[in-house]
Amino acid sequence: MLASAREQGVKLAGVHVSLLLVFLSAVLGGADGLLFGAAYTPYRHFGACPNESQVYEDMGKVMGITKRVRIYSTECMNVNRILLQYASEGRLEILMGVWIDNRSRDQGEIDDLITSLREFPHAKITGIVVGNEVMYRNTASSSQLAGRIYEVRHKVRALGAQTGSEILKSTPVYAVEAYPNAQVVAASDALGVNIHPFYVPDLPTIWDADQMADAALEMATKVMNLFKTMYPWKPMVVTEIGWPTSSSYSDQHVGNVAVATAFMWKWKHHAEINNIPYYYFEIFDSPWRHPLFPNDNPSMSDFNFGLYYADRRTPKWGM
What is the DSSP-derived secondary structure letter of residue 288? Predict the structure, then answer.
């Protein structure tokens, strides 16, 4: 994810979690009333994996929002196990993630992926993302990242042959970037892109929430179409898209609940009628990231994209 805007306090009344799930089922649209997919990070504190009861508690919220989740890392083996068990039972589909930072942990990420998939070779996974915005963060070269993509694909295909898993023999393996890199795209089976209109400097600030959401949707579509034009032969997956519910003075735009709500409905409708696979960013607020930005205000946008507040129990949408 990227980061940047000013703070504006617009609050809508919260509702009980059970009411939220009814609300989502009623108005999210689509055949099953759910988002196509959403990004899930299990952490409560930086660098600390949750316990199993916390993961199951999370899943109670997740399953009311979507039946597809994107995860970013394999380091929490208990999370892998629970999600892959759900996916083996047909209750969930997972876009797996291998976090790449050009550090020694990179190999552990890959090894943990293979260990987890060996235990659940027939789990319904929609793909494997190798590296999230590595080029943007400048933590590895394009050739290094491409090499990791080839390595993961080779190992996953080999595991598919060993276990007889048709899913592992064919699931797409690809990297995700904010702006595609040619060498990385060539190594990838799909074009994974994180699209965040909130961080586009050319996006105008409009104080009417509905009009601001319209402008954000137009910008997101413009960016997506640009990438499609660049790589028309690659199937595209929008691996992150959203709007924050809070922002700080350092951000370029204003995050609030009113715009975030309007943008989500508009994006969901647009994606459905245009058959765009996407993972909405994100299910829970992520103040656990604060150590990465120690000098930033807790209201900073990067921490506040969730459909739920940081307590992971309180939904943001009013009725």
Answer: G
Q: What is the pLDDT of residues 170-222, one digit of tens each?
A: 999 999 999 999 999 999 999 999 999 999 999 999 999 999 999 999 999 99
Euclidean distance between the first and final Cα of the chain, in Å?
29
Q: What is the CA radius of gyration of the chain?
A: 19
Tell me how crowded residue 279 is: count the other CB atoms within 10 A of its CB: 29
**Amino acid, res. 247:** S
Angle ∠(91,95,98) on CA atoms, nearest 5: 135
Residue 136 makes CB contacts below 8 A (sequence gap 6+) with: 2, 177, 178, 179
CA dist 29 and 293 (Å) reads: 36
Tell me which of 118-132, 153-167, 235-249, 283-297 is least confident.
Answer: 283-297
Distance of alpha carbon 133 from alpha carbon 2, whole angstroms: 9
> Residue 317's pLDDT is what?
78
* All residues at 6 or more sequence positions from 231 whose CB lies less than 8 Å from its CB, including other chains: 180, 185, 191
Per DSSP bridges, beta strands 278-280 and 93-98 are: unpaired
pTM score of the predicted model: 0.90
* Token duo for residue 202: 């050319």
Alpha-carbon dihedral angle through residues 253, 258, 259, 263, given to the nearest 10 degrees: 160
Cα–Cα distances (Å) from 15 to 21, 23, 208, 287, in that order, read: 10, 10, 24, 22
Residue whose entry in the numeric block shows the structure tokens 């922002």: 247
Q: How confident is the model at residue 1 (pLDDT cuts 50, 70, 90)?
A: low
